[in-house]
Design brief:
94 residues, elongated
Amino acid sequence: MIIDRRIIAGLLAATALTGCASVADKEFVGYQDPGFGEANRATYAAMVVNPDPKYDKPIPASSAEHAAQAIERYRTDAVKRPERVETTDIGGGG
C-alpha cells in the first residue's frame, strides 16, 4: 500500500492547526471572553437585590487580640492544628 507524502503532510498540518482555533489569546486583538466579569456582575446584582442582607446568625465578633495571637503562633510555628473532618465513609456495609 502506497501512501502519498502530501496526504500525510496535509493531515499533520490540519491536526497541528486545530490548536490554533483557541480564542484564549485573542484578547490582545480585541476579542474578549463573553463570560469575562460575570462574577462581578453577579455580586453587584446580589447587592442591588438586597443591599443590607439580614442573616439568621449574627457574625461573630472578632478581636484584635485573637488575631495578634494567631499571628504570633504562625511566626513561632505553633499553629493550632484544625480538627480532622471526615467527609466520606469508605467501607463495606452489611
